[in-house]
User: Which sequence fits this backbone?
């Protein structure tokens, strides 16, 4: 086992970035790239996406990876609603809100879908189990808001709306400043 492999084994995350490897390796960037490339070719590490690697695919914390590779972002939309039971079906894709451009990443059989939200709508999330995740009311509004312009599918029939805090929902709804969204949500809770 090479010296670099031994050092990579000590990284406390389920994956690592090139920047993480740079911090522990006694190599210049060019040599480090070559060393990592050789480890990938030898099957000692796995390339996830450009600049990110792991030693065991089964141990990768994909939600944390999704948050790291395209920051700022937080888990929201279908994925967050599925985790809280509001949405009756769990999403296999990780869906995230970001202030950057919409983006999609495929890693093995997983898809990370980043949907753009205006900077003033980047709120309503919390840290839960080490993840930035939208509160159910915010994930619900994020999904409804994007559906108004065809960027997401919103079907309230597939949701348990009794799990949402109506006061928090109203408070968050005001921040969207959208008459169309107010009308849609108002009809659901009339």
Assistant:
């Amino acid at each position: 086992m090479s010296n670099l492999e031994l050092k990579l084994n000590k990284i406390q995350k389920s994956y690592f970035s090139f920047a993480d490897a740079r911090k522990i390796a006694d190599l210049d960037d060019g040599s480090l790239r070559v060393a990592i490339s050789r480890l990938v070719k030898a099957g000692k590490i796995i390339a996830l996406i450009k600049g990110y690697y792991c030693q065991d695919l089964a141990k990768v914390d994909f939600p944390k990876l999704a948050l790291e590779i395209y920051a700022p972002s937080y888990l929201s939309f279908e994925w967050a609603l599925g985790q809280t039971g509001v949405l009756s079906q769990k999403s296999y894709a990780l869906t995230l809100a970001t202030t950057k451009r919409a983006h999609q990443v495929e890693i093995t059989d997983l898809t990370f879908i980043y949907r753009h939200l205006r900077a003033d709508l980047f709120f309503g999330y919390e840290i839960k189990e080490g993840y930035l995740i939208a509160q159910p009311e915010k994930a619900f509004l994020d999904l409804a808001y994007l559906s108004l312009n065809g960027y997401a599918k919103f079907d309230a029939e597939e949701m348990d709306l009794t799990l949402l805090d109506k006061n928090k929902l109203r408070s968050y709804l005001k921040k969207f400043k959208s008459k169309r969204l107010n009308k849609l949500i108002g009809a659901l809770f009339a």
Remarks:
- The chain has two domains: 3-59, 66-188.
- The chain has a mean pLDDT of 94.
